[in-house]
Design goal:
single chain, 378 residues, Aspartate Aminotransferase, domain 2, 7-stranded mixed beta sheet, 3-stranded antiparallel beta sheet, 14 strands, globular, binds pyridoxal-5'-phosphate, L-serine-pyruvate transaminase activity, PyrdxlP-dep_Trfase_small
Length: 378
Amino acid sequence: MSDLLIMTPGPTEVSEEVRRAMSRKITNPDLDPEFFEFYLGVSSKLQKVLKTKNDVIIMSGEGILGLESACASLIEPEDKVLVLDNGIFGRGFADFADLYGANVVKWDFPYDEKININKLEKKLAAENDFKFATFVHCETSTGVINDAKEITNLLNKYNILSVVDSVSAIGGVPIEVDKWGIDIILGGSQKCLSVPPGLTFLSVSDKAWEAVNDRETPVRGYYTNLQLWQNWYEEKYFPYTQAISDIYALDAALDKWIADQTIYARHKKIAEAVRKTIKRSNLNLYAKNGHSDTVTSIEIPKGISYQELNQLMTESYNVMIASSLGEFEDRLIRIGHMGENCYDAKLYRTLKAFDHSLRELGFELNVELHKIFVNQLN
Ligand SMILES: *Cc1c(COP(=O)(O)O)cnc(C)c1O
């Protein structure tokens, strides 16, 4: 496992600096006043990434915890919640909203393209009495990225709060939470920020705080109750003991991210080169449009199974790429080119392994993927 290159769309590779940060001496995060200042500092670094003045809360748990917390804290039974579904994660939001008793209205959009804004606009003109709407920024299952700015603008026009799962986009593509007017956006540590799995974070607008507070029924949950986080700094109180070593790691990753002036340009350049490479070959990209600069989905050629491809790639070439979920399992392979994965040499090694493995499994590639990739970079 030691030199296995993890090119999945999360968890991503973790840098030496970040790993070292996790070994720092800890303190008691409930009692040490310095830890509260430290946590505030990490939160303000996340505000920089998200371009927001809204509160940013860091919670111990994976991305799903952020998603569930937003639903648990906002929803009262029978609240009307709009779920925009153009992928597996998008669809999954409906289950969480349902779990907390919402009256869920789900609008389906094709999975192989970004949400069509004109279509959404028409539907919203006809029905818009929603407390909030959810959508996924980057659908990690397919590599489709939605136009978060346009969608949020529309929702704001009708005073619908927005809850945006940006787990696999934050840090890899430009995001302007305040300018775009996003009420709750949530991320995870293990995607573009390249911290081990374990943390989720979310920003909460004043309007969202009002909705979280203005409830007639109590929040059905404790770990997922955002109300408990409102005055953590003033009261020097966390609802539970913080995962201090994970937060050390996040802090180190954020320092690295902030110092990297070329991060978005690098994601764009590498993602475009990967896509052009696939387009030049006799393989097919899954998405028709809305290609994310953080993850690419490629159709698995007929007659090859993900399992045998993965086994060959990991055992013979020490590179791991992912399959997809749900109905896409065994249909798509996904290469994560986000965060620490997003370097020319790592994509070169990945595409070379992919190229050789496909040939060994009997697929006749018409070009050499890694060589085409290099040409696309210039
Ligand atoms: C990774 C991810 C999450 C977190 O889910 P896990 O499958 O548990 O890692 C949530 N939403 C999106 C869009 C993600 O990419």
